[in-house]
Structure formats: C-alpha cells, structure tokens
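Re: [ENG-882] Designed sequences occasionally contain unexpected residues at chain ends

Forwarding the minimal case from QA. Structure tokens:
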C-alpha cells in the first residue's frame, strides 16, 4: 500500500475519513530537542446523532525524536493499518 504524505495546508476534505497526523515542536526546556506527537483521526458516525464525529487517538505524545523519525514511524503505522494519508504540520499548538 502506498501512503501519501501531505502538508497541513491541505483541506480536511482531501484528507479523507481516516488519516494520521504528525506534529513536532521544540522542547520548551531544551530547544535542541524535538518533541513529536502522532495522532490518528477517524471519522465515525454516531447512531444517536445525524452528524459524524472525528475520533482522535493519540499514538505518541510529545516524545523526543527527530521529524524524520516521527514521519517514518507514522508512515509505517499507516502502511500497517492501511491508512492512505499521513499529514504533517511541523509544529504543535499548545
């Protein structure tokens, strides 16, 4: 399976209903360390509601690793789970 890597500038509609997002930021205590967060976003329909909701599963939260390592790990996960898209934004809010 081929996994497409897209920039965060892509619209959510183009990402599909199941994708992995990689976010990285500098450690606030040591700006030489990069922290990575990897999350899986899945759109699920709730029976009690007419609208769909996005379920977010955090796989890795602010762990020290390079951007390339985080992207490689997310891509391997996406391939194994047959998720077609990995989205990267290069920074993490909050």
């Amino acid at each position: 399976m081929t996994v497409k890597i897209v920039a965060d500038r892509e619209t959510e509609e183009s990402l599909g209903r199941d994708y992995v997002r990689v976010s990285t930021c500098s450690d606030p205590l040591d700006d030489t360390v990069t922290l990575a967060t990897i999350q899986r976003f899945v759109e699920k329909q709730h029976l009690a509601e007419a609208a769909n909701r996005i379920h977010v599963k955090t796989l890795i939260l602010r762990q020290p690793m390079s951007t390339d390592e985080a992207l490689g790990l997310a891509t391997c996960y996406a391939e194994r789970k047959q998720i077609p898209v990995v989205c990267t934004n290069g920074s993490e809010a909050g």
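QA comment: On inspection the terminal residues look reasonable. Residues 16 and 64 are 29 Å apart (CA to CA). Proposing we downgrade this to a documentation issue.
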